[in-house]
Amino acid sequence: MADYFLEVKGKKIHCLSNDLSGQPKVLLFHGARFNANTWNQVSTLKSLKEIGVPAVAVDFPGYGLSERGSWNDLSEFIKDLLQAMDLERPVLLGPSMGGNAVLKYAIKYDQVSGLILVGPVGVEEVQDELDRLDGIPVLLIWGENDNVSPIEKSKVLISRISTARLEIVGKQHACYLDDPKKFNDLVEKFITDVRWSRN
């Protein structure tokens, strides 16, 4: 994997790429206790490379190797990041805090081809706006015994987004650590099935 820094609003943001040529089709974010390298450690970047999908994992500002920024809302950081990358309608993957950020971004800007939400926190903050995502492919992945974002929260998402489906992986909040192979297989299948440009 190749790492590089991208300037976003004057701040150096660390990215980790799976090296396939062309613009990334998938951006991977992280939770509060993790960073971009998590997706290298659990082989998600490698898994996507093996099916020919360019992907980039990103350190949020102030996490991993990225500089701190003035963003109070990580969904606004994602908007600025996509502008800096000149990227339109990627699939966004976000666990926990990152899931909250990509969920808010997708609701506000309607500029995604699909979402992979892994035990996202703060679902209740946006529950009245979730119908804006109806029609967008959404994969929900939850650990069975998630004690940070209980699996019951998935019911809110499923009831509001007809194109959302739920998969259970492992037990804990960071469920991708429990069973990386199953997690990566689900991510691969979802991304293979997603149409890159929505009608």
UniProtKB/TrEMBL annotation:
Residues 26-120 form the AB hydrolase-1 domain. SUPFAM superfamilies: alpha/beta-Hydrolases. Gene3D superfamilies: alpha/beta hydrolase. GO terms for cellular component: cytoplasm. GO terms for molecular function: hydrolase activity. Its main location: cytoplasm. Coiled coil: none annotated. It is found in: Cytoplasm. The keyword DNA damage does not apply. InterPro entries: AB_hydrolase_1, AB_hydrolase_fold. Keywords: Cytoplasm, Hydrolase. PANTHER family: AB HYDROLASE-1 DOMAIN-CONTAINING PROTEIN, PROTEIN ABHD14B-LIKE. Belongs to the AB hydrolase superfamily. ABHD14 family. This is 2-hydroxy-6-oxo-6-phenylhexa-2,4-dienoate hydrolase. It comes from Metallosphaera hakonensis JCM 8857 = DSM 7519.
